[in-house]
Amino acid sequence: MLDPEKRLTLWRQIADRLAEEVTAGRFGDGRLPTEPQLAARFGVNRHTIRRAIGVLADQGLITVEQGLGTFVARHLEYVLGRRPRFDADLRSQGREPGRCVLSVATIEADPATARDLRLNRSAPVLQIEMIAYADGVAVSYGIHSFPARRFAALPNAFADTNSITAALVRCGVTDHTREVTRLLTRLPSEREARYLEQALSRPVLQAEAINADLANVRIQRSLVVFAGDRVQFRLAGGSTGETIGRPGSGAQPANRRPSPAIIGG
Amino acid sequence: MLDPEKRLTLWRQIADRLAEEVTAGRFGDGRLPTEPQLAARFGVNRHTIRRAIGVLADQGLITVEQGLGTFVARHLEYVLGRRPRFDADLRSQGREPGRCVLSVATIEADPATARDLRLNRSAPVLQIEMIAYADGVAVSYGIHSFPARRFAALPNAFADTNSITAALVRCGVTDHTREVTRLLTRLPSEREARYLEQALSRPVLQAEAINADLANVRIQRSLVVFAGDRVQFRLAGGSTGETIGRPGSGAQPANRRPSPAIIGG
DNA sequence: GTTCATTTGTTCGTATGTATC
DNA sequence: CGATACATACGAACAAATGAA
C-alpha cells in the first residue's frame, strides 16, 4: 500500500493518501478511523499516523478533537461575489440557516459607521445585532447598520420577514451589491467567543462590508465575525462558478451544543 | 472635552474619540499615549481608558502589546482583484517588498496540486517555497506550484528575476489572473509560526489560490499563509478602487525583529 | 546574565446610578 | 417603598512582559 522505495517519508505518503480520501468523499460520515485503526491499516506506528494527521489538521482539512476523534473539517463556504447571499450559500450546501436577533435599536452613529455610510456625525442609525446559525451551530455574529431616516420602516419589515434582504426589499431596495469588504483575522473578544460558542484561543474571521443600492448609495454597513473553525470564504475569480475543494460530506462531531433560542430557521 | 450630560458612558465616548483620532492620522508615529497618560488627558481612571482601548483592539483598530504600549494597527492591505499583484500593493503602501526563497524543487504532484492544476497523478511539479517580507518583517509564507513540463525554464528565470510574475513573463505568460481563491483562518503550525516570526497563539490567514493564463489554463497553485496580525485583505466590490479605513500611518512597535536573510528586496 | 524603568495585565475593594421585581 | 442585580467609575497594589543600561 505504501511506497517501499521510500522516495517519500511514510508520514508524507500517508498524509497524501488521507488527504486524497478525504477530498474524494470517503469517510462519508465525516469521521476518520481512530489513530490505532489507521496505524493498523497502514502498518505503521501510531506516531507516524499522528504526524500525518497533524499535517492535515494544520492545513485545515481535518479537525482533531481530543477524546472524540478525528473529523473531516466541514467548513461552511461563503462565496464572496457581487451580492451578499449568505442564506442561499448555506442552503446550497444543505444547511439550514437560522438566526437569533439580539437587539434592534436606533442610535447615534459612531464615527466609523457615519464615515462609511456617509452620514453626518450623530445621524440616527438603525442597528441590528444578531447571530447566524447553520443547522443550529453558531457561525457568525454581526452588527448591521443602516441610515435610520431612510429605513424607518425596516424594523417592522425585519420583524416580519426575519431577513435583512427581504426587509430591504420591502423598503424599496430591490437589489443591493457589495461595495467593499475588508477581511482580517484575529482572536475573539470574550463576548464574541460566547456568542459563537467557541474557545477564546480559536481565531475568527472579521468581515467589514459596505453594501450599496442600485444607485450606488451606501445603505448598509456590516461588521461580522465568523467562527474561524467553521467558515471559509471563496472568491470566484472568473465567470465560472466552479466548485473546488472539500465536498462537505457527512456529519460533524454531532450537535453537542444545545440549540440556543433560534428565531428564524 | 467629554460630554458631561452623560448621554453616553465615559468609556464609549473615549472609544469613539480615540477611534476618530486614530483614523484621522493623529498618533503619526503609530504609538498611542500610555494608559496613565490617556487617563490624565481625559480625566478618568485607568480602568475607563482600558475599557475604551479594549473595544478598539477588539475591532482591530489598534493593537495592545504588554510591556510595550498601544499601537495603531497597521495592517498591510492586499487588494484581491482579478490579478494577483502583491508587490505592487506593498509598494503603493510605501513598503519595501522582499523575499527569501527557501527551496526550488521539481517533485511529484501531491493529490491536491494535481487536481487543482488538472495534472495527472505523479506529474512533475515545480515547487517554490518562500517567505515574503515587507520592510524586513515577514508577512507571508507560501508554496507555489507550477506544471514542471510547461515551465521548465521557470527556475532559471526565477533565479534571475527573483519574481514569480517576472519569471512567468519570461516563460511566455504575459498575464495571468486569479481563477479561484479560498480564504480561511486557523492557528499556525510550529514551522509556519517560526517562518512568520509570530506566536503560535496568533492566527494566520490561509489563502489557497489558483491562477490561470489568458487561455484559462491553470498554471499556478499557491498555498500561502499570512501573518494575521500584519495583513488584511480588501475586496473591491464595484469598479471604484476607493480607499477606505485605516490611513496606515507611522511605525509599528518598531523593528524588534532582526532582519533575516532576505534575498531580493 | 542582572538590574532597572516602563508599560500593560490582573485583582482586590469601594461607591454610585439605574433598572427590575 | 425596599431589595436586588447589574453596569459604571474610581483607587490601589501587585504581576508579567519588554527593552535598555
Description:
With 265 residues, chain A is of the alpha+beta class. Chain A folds into 2 domains: 10-72, Winged helix-like DNA-binding domain superfamily/Winged helix DNA-binding domain (Arc Repressor Mutant, subunit A, Orthogonal Bundle); 76-264, Chorismate lyase. Chain A has 8 helices and 10 strands. In chain A, the strands form 3 sheets. In chain A, strands 4-5-6-9-8-7 form a 6-stranded antiparallel β-sheet. In chain A, helix 2 crosses helix 3. The termini of chain A are far apart. In chain A, 39% of the residues are buried. Chain B binds a DNA duplex (21 and 21 nucleotides) through helix 3.
Notable characteristics:
Arc Repressor Mutant, subunit A; homodimer; two-stranded antiparallel ribbon; DNA-binding; six-stranded antiparallel beta sheet; Chorismate lyase; alpha+beta; 265 residues
Helix-strand layout with pairing:
The structure is a homodimer of 265-residue chains.
Chain A lengths: L9 H15 L10 H8 L3 H13 L3 E4 L3 E4 L3 E4 L6 H7 L4 E12 L2 H6 L7 E11 L2 E11 L6 H8 L2 H7 L5 E11 L3 H7 L7 E10 L4 E10 L3 E6 L29
Parallel strand pairs in A: 3-10
Antiparallel strand pairs in A: 1-2, 4-5, 5-6, 6-9, 7-8, 8-9
Helix pairs in contact in A: 1-3, 2-3, 6-7
Chain B binds a DNA duplex (21 and 21 nucleotides) through helix 3.
